[in-house]
Amino acid sequence: MYVLIGILLLGILIAVHEFGHFIAARICGIEVMEFAIGMGPKIFGWTGKSGTKFSLRCIPLGGFCAFYGEDDVEGKSKDDPRAYGKQNVWKRIFTVAMGPMMNFVLALVVAIAVYTFMAMPVYEPVITEIVAESPAAQAGLQPGDVITAVDGKDVLDGTTTALSAAIGNIEGVQEHHLTIRRGEETFEAVASTYWDEAEQKYRIGITFTGNVVGSYRLSFGQAVAEGWNYCIDAGTMVFTALKGIFTDPAIRDQMAGPVGTVQVVSEAVKQDGAVAFFSLLVVISVNLGIMNLLPIPGLDGSRIVFHLIEAVRGKPIKPEREALVHFIGMIFLFGLMIFFTFKDVIRLFQ
Predict the structure, then answer these.
(1) Residue-wise pLDDT tens digits, 228-238
(2) Are 107 and 41 part of one and the same domain?
(3) CA 310 to CA 290: how far, in whole Å?
(4) Alpha carbon of 10 to those of 38, 59, 88, 262: distances in Å?
(5) Dist CA 4 CA 7 (whole Å)
(6) In this structure, are 96 and 139 located in the same domain?
(7) At 171, is the pLDDT very low, low, confident or very high (cuts 50, 70, 90)?
(8) How many helices (H) and strands (E) does the chain have?
(9) Per-residue pLDDT for 213 more than 80?
(10) 286 touches 231 (CB < 8 A)
(11) 318 in a domain, yes or no?
């Protein structure tokens, strides 16, 4: 069941992406020959009133929205006003860009919905570990103590951020006055910072975590802000990972294809339920949007580049040349997909 949920997530992302192309084409008057979710043999399909063929295919690894006369290297439709290449170049750019844009829209809408309807946990910072002979140990702090204030400033903000800022972001040796709650007792303790060579930061010698003590709901305005920030963080992670592909072997080892993605989603949903499903949907949707906008041959970003060159030159690049570039790109992308699928399957048996 959880594997099917993972496949469902990929299907939603693909359907929304291709629907972006489809609805933009309809708005711009570009004729759509076929709208398909999945690849390979057709499971079922039908023909719409507009003449567009809709189909669901058996391999949930992609989809397509085929326009009339697109990639016509033989020139059969070069004089047909319905042909994709005959449409205004800015309409074509809008149509291609709307696929990734719909992934961004989906991510933001889902993130806002999650923050609107999900109860947000309220945390208090609880000490879990004391470094031996550290200032915290000398001050008499113990695991289980709750730090409620630092230098008279309340750090019970419902997160662990305030305490991290008060202690973790300090510089130099400083003395801190801590307000500690231990059971029913509240008392003051004094601890100075020291330089931790291993952590490369100043510490007082504690490790702490957030203990859930309640929950609350965000207003719609707060949910919009948090949803937006979550999408931005997801995009930042994508660019960090792209950089790490060339600089960090660990990130290269963690890269996965569709099978690995389904495995990650299914395991996360099994452990954390619907919140994990929608959180991953946001992250992967942002990932899909960004990756498709990169100027990689075969992807939307490459087609946008060709259309922009046409807009600047005033005439398109020869269709056969553009088609060759996209064909080479698709071969490369399918090769990567096969490689990562093989790698994902090997991981399943390790």
Answers:
(1) 999 999 999 88
(2) yes
(3) 23
(4) 10, 11, 32, 8
(5) 5
(6) no
(7) low
(8) 10, 10
(9) no
(10) yes
(11) yes
Question: Domain check: are 108 and 194 in the same one?
Answer: no
Decide if 326 contacts 303 (C-beta within 8 A): yes
Whether 260 maps to a domain, the answer reads no
- Counted residue by residue, the chain has a size of 350
CATH of the domain at 193: 2.30.42.10
Q: Are residues 126 and 93 in the same domain?
A: no
Residue range of the domain that includes 42: 2-116+266-348
Q: How confident is the model at residue 21 (pLDDT cuts 50, 70, 90)?
A: very high
Domain membership of residue 18 (yes or no) is yes
Q: Are 111 and 282 in contact (CB under 8 A)?
A: yes
Which residue, among 108, 106, 116, has the nearest Cα to 11 in the 3D structure?
Answer: 106
Residue by residue, DSSP assigns 68-112 as: TTTT-TT-TTTT-TTSGGGS-HHHHHHHHHHHHHHHHHHHHHHHH
The enclosing H or E element of 190 equals: strand 185-192
Rg (CA), the chain: 27
Q: How far apart are CA 58 and CA 40, in angstroms?
A: 6
Tell me which amino acid residue 153 is: K
Name the burial class of residue 16, with classes exposed (0-12), middle (13-18) and buried (19+) by CB atoms within 10 angstroms of its CB. Answer: buried
- Considering the domain architecture, whether residues 78 and 59 belong to the same structural domain is answered as yes
pLDDT digits (tens, 9 = 90+) for 332-344: 888 877 787 787 7
Do 97 and 124 share a structural domain?
A: no
Q: Which token pair is 236?
A: 């930042």
Phi and psi, residue 212, nearest 5°: -70, 125
Cα–Cα dist 118/223, whole Å: 10
Secondary structure of residue 254 in the 3-state scheme:
helix
Same domain, 92 and 166: no
The angle at the Cα of 319, spanning 313 to 324, to the nearest 5 degrees, equals 115
